[in-house]
Amino acid sequence: MAYWLIKSEGSCYSIDDLVHDKRTTWTGIRNFQARNYMRDGMKVGELTFFYHSSGTSKDPSGIYGIAKIVDAAHVDETALDPKDEHYDPKAANYQNEPLWVAVDVEFVKKFPQPILLADLKKDKALSKMLVLQRGQRLSVMPVEKGEWERVMEKINML
Description:
By secondary structure, the chain is of the alpha+beta class. It has helices spanning 15-21, 32-41, 117-122, 145-157; strands at 3-9, 23-26, 47-53, 62-75, 101-116, 140-143. It has one domain (3-157): ph1033 like domains (ph1033 like fold), CATH 3.10.590.10. Strand 3 (47-53) and strand 4 (62-75) form a beta hairpin. The radius of gyration is 16 Å and the shape is globular. The two termini are 26 Å apart.
């Protein structure tokens, strides 16, 4: 099983929104590498950390919980909708293989308190975690098994 991390601005779609919705389609990804991770890597049943990015003092950046992939990559309908903020007119030219894809995720767990970015950075065992790399802006990324286990240890210490 592979592990993942998906990022969303807490003010846009938070872990609490996922708690409420129980399930959502992860749309609006417009980066080819992130798209490739969803299309070629993510499998139904795999787990992903839910990360709030662009933190504020009220909602700091960090890992807030866990979701599960419940539907494999499929066309991201927001790319085809001119009324949607994630519309991409080029997407209509890709009839056989969609230019942009989405996966469906389901709520699993909200952490009692988030593991903040600052705390992740202090942990030497997580020093190679992609979300901690300088200039890393992908909203979907893989997480190594050892990194997943280390973050889960941190949660169990709370």
